[in-house]
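Two entries, shown back to back:
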Amino acid sequence: MINISKPVAANNSDFVVGDVVVCVSERHSDKLFTIKAYQPTDHYWLDCESLAYKNDIRPATTIELYAGKRLTSDEAAHLANALKAQQEVS
């Protein structure tokens, strides 16, 4: 799952201001970042005052938004199963 659907942007960028993203590489930060501005060369200003290329970030998943950080695939599967079990008990 990804962020709420975004409107078609006039600049044809992949993300819009306010989207929550994570770094693609697991070697980088596991923090969530918010898009603050688009640069014409497919770069985005993040809320941490860093510039990121569009291929170096991806939308945060719903489960990552819930966890508050980027998750590995194993972590995401574990958390999803835990949340599902919690819903069944409730």
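entry 2 starts here
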Amino acid sequence: MAQKIIAKIRTKLQIGTGKGAWTYIVWDGVADAFGTRQPVKVRGKIDGQLFENSFLPVKDGTHLLGVNAKTRKAIKKEAGDEVSVEIYERI
């Protein structure tokens, strides 16, 4: 049975400034999808690669989701590249 998709997001990987900066995606739909502006731990896929991580709130009302080096290597993408994200469940 196929998993129910809570959200599909098409966005670019972004990177913060400074040494050791995170690579992440930004989504403004967390509050609508999950009914909260707090951190939300989720499972899903980025370009077909499974992940489990938390959307973290930003002061502007959006949320960011870190994309670690292992995932970026698996999908062969870096900051500036576009990715498809599917969110399957809140955990």
